[in-house]
Amino acid sequence: MNYLIETMGCQMNVCDSTMLDSYLSTYGALKVNDISNADVVIINTCSVRSQAEQKAFSYIGRVEKFKQKNPNIRIVVVGCMAELIGLKIQERFNSVDLIVGSKNIDKITSKILHLFGLNNRLKSGEISQKLEIVKYMTIVRGCNNYCSYCIVPFVRGREESLDYRVILNKCSVMVKNGTKEIVLLGQNVNSYNYDYVNFTMLVKKIVMIENLRRIRFMTNHPKDLSDELINVIATEAKVCSHVHLPIQSASDKVLKAMNRNYSYEQYLGLINKLRKSVPDINITTDIIVGFPSETEMDFECTLNAVKSIKFDGLYVFKYSPRPNTKAATMIDNVSLKDKKTRHAIVLEESNKISTEIVSKMVGSTQEVLVEKVENGVIEARTRNCRKVFIKNANVDCLGEQLDVTIVEAKVNSLFGIVT
Ligand code: 5AD
Ligand code: SF4
Fold first, then answer.
1. Which range marks the domain in which residue 382 is found?
2. Does residue 388 sit in the same domain as residue 300?
3. 127 located within any domain
4. Angstrom distance (rounded) from CA 25 to CA 18
């Protein structure tokens, strides 16, 4: 059975797709990139913004067209849209063979195998042994924060932390299989708590795993970023100096309406603490423009924050009302034109700042970990999580830690040579 997997949305979906890869390969299924070689197309969907849903609809539509000429191909839709509007998808695309929501992610493999009449019993220890230098691991599922714009708590459910013993065990197995870097995932990863073991305690335990080189984590909610966690980032050599800390807005009025539970001043306090404790910290963020009732003045607050904080990188989104959320009951009164303008302004400013920051890195020497070598392209990452393409290393450097001199810098990537 050959499968093609199209992954949309956040790192949690990337993580789920990787899990699916491991399970399917256990049964001899082969991952392909070209639909004409696939027996099944799996679409891992995202619901966080309506644009993401439109993207999935149009992708499913294209696969459906392909199926008209190739009727043996199976279409499987998984992830958040499958959870939220599975029935609607089935009605709109009757060629879809299987729909499995994100809450039932562990059942996907057996259901797909069933579609093909294959045996679905998994023997323990049979998971794929393919060498992956970086592995993602979800440690907190769901979210309890109910930010007023966000659909995640409705789709992924209440927050649930995994048993730390299970996490530690999985991490150890990953490292034994050659993984050098583990990325801990959760919608709100620093609210991890299981049997009085909080996130900082968990990170300290994972750090002890021999041969593990790096730990990263995302996403952080400002209200849960504790001093002790900042201290761990500062002091534990294996913990990468990167924090993705969504601000969403810098207007206190909008933050309140978003139910974010912090003020701009409190957010700024965290940035100052982080920069003081971890000098090479890379801080990235998410911003929503055009939230209901966001005035020009509110937007100016956000823009000024972007200019003064100088984030290393950011994602900016145009507000989109989502079903069931509190914000969907508010009047979506910022016009699409204004949303587009604000979006473009933030993006332009942020690109300018990122370019300034990375161009200062040209000529510096950075310790990088080689994460991927594919078709002669060598991808590595600095300790503070910046992607570096290495121009001259030989191709068997996968998993190695190297010193590189940065010779060229673009907004989102650096280019270096091994010195
Ligand atoms: N509209 C626009 N952006 C949203 N996000 C989440 N929900 C919405 C929405 N309804 C953004 C937030 C979040 C990121 C993953 O997606 O910025 O941090
Ligand atoms: Fe959504 Fe807020 Fe939870 Fe993030 S913290 S997943 S934005 S509800």
1. 365-418
2. no
3. no
4. 11
Please tell me whether residues 197 and 317 are part of one structural domain. Answer: yes
pTM to 2 decimals? 0.92
Q: Does residue 188 line the site of ligand 2, with CB under 6 A?
A: yes
Going by C-beta distance under 8 Å and a sequence separation of 6 or more, which residues neighbour residue 283?
Answer: 242, 243, 245, 271, 274, 275, 309, 311, 312
Atom 1 of ligand 2, nearest CA residue = 150
- Please indicate, yes or no, if residue 128 is contained in any of the structural domains: no
Beta strands in 114-166 (DSSP E): 134-141, 160-161
**Of all atoms in ligand 2, which is nearest to the CA of residue 248?**
7
Residue 122 lies in a domain: no
- If one residue of 140, 143, 192 were mutated to test the ligand 2 pocket, choosing by the most ligand atoms within 8 A of its CB, it would be 143
Ligand closest to 322 (CA) is: 1
Is residue 243 within 8 A of residue 225, CB to CB? The reply is yes
Do 352 and 221 lie in one domain? The reply is yes
47 lines ligand 2 (CB under 6 A): no
Q: Nearest ligand to the C-alpha of residue 152?
A: 2
User: How open is the CA angle 243-247-250, to the nearest 5 degrees?
Assistant: 145
CATH code where residue 393 lies: 2.40.50.140
Nearest ligand 1 atom, CA 327: 10
Q: Which ligand lies nearest the alpha carbon of 147?
A: 2
- For residues 307 and 374, membership in a common domain is answered with no
Bridge partners, residue 377, by sequence: 374
Q: From first to last of its 419 residues, what are the pLDDT tens digits of the chain?
A: 899 999 999 888 988 998 888 888 878 889 999 999 999 999 999 999 999 999 999 999 999 999 999 999 999 999 999 999 999 999 999 999 999 998 887 788 888 888 888 766 554 445 555 678 999 999 999 999 999 999 999 998 999 999 999 999 999 999 999 999 999 999 999 999 999 999 999 999 999 999 999 999 999 999 999 999 999 999 999 999 999 999 999 999 999 999 999 999 999 999 999 999 999 999 999 999 999 999 999 999 999 999 999 999 999 999 999 999 999 999 999 999 999 999 999 999 999 999 999 999 999 999 999 999 888 889 999 999 999 999 986 767 899 999 999 999 988 789 999 97
CA of 375 relative to ligand 1 center, distance in Å: 34
- CATH (domain of 13): 3.40.50.12160
What is the rounded distance in angstroms from the CA atom of residue 3 to the CA atom of residue 75?
10
If one residue of 80, 145, 324 were mutated to test the ligand 2 pocket, choosing by the most ligand atoms within 8 A of its CB, it would be: 145
Q: 126 lies in a domain?
A: no
Residue 322 CA to ligand 1 center (angstroms) comes to 10
Other CB atoms within 10 A of residue 49 CB: 19
For 294, the token pair is 């966001």
Q: Report strand pairing: 2-7 vs 40-45.
A: parallel
